[in-house]
């Protein structure tokens, strides 16, 4: 499901008063999905033992990962990582 599809579903749920009592959680979820950062991992170099240093293109936090393990989100800033 894409962010746009999730936003559409949340907006429909928000319009349906029988869905649940009105509160701010749906509005907050829509705002969070609309403002979600997207980035990509920047390879900084080999550090040994099949591990490489990578940097988040959004927050510039660096981390050591295996090239075979795909981390889909930056655990520092929460950006969704896209392939380049």
Compose a concise summary of this entry.
It is built from two helices and five strands; from the N terminus they run H-H-E-E-E-E-E. With 84 residues, it is an alpha+beta fold.
Would you mind describing this structure in some detail?
By secondary structure, this protein is an alpha+beta fold. Helices cover 27% and strands 27% of the residues. The chain is built from two helices and five strands. The strands form two sheets. The chain has a three-stranded antiparallel β-sheet, with no helix packed on it. A hairpin with a 2-residue loop joins strand 2 and strand 3. Helix 1 packs antiparallel against helix 2. It is elongated, with a radius of gyration of 18 Å.
Distance between the termini: 20 Å
Uncertain segments? none
Portion of residues within helices: 25-40%
Strand content is 25-35%
Total beta strand runs: 5
Number of helices: 2
Key words describing this protein structure:
84 residues; two-stranded parallel ribbon; alpha+beta; 2 domains
Q: How are the secondary structure elements laid out?
A:
Layout: H1 3-15, H2 25-34, E1 38-39, E2 41-48, E3 51-56, E4 62-66, E5 80-81
Helix pairs in contact: 1-2
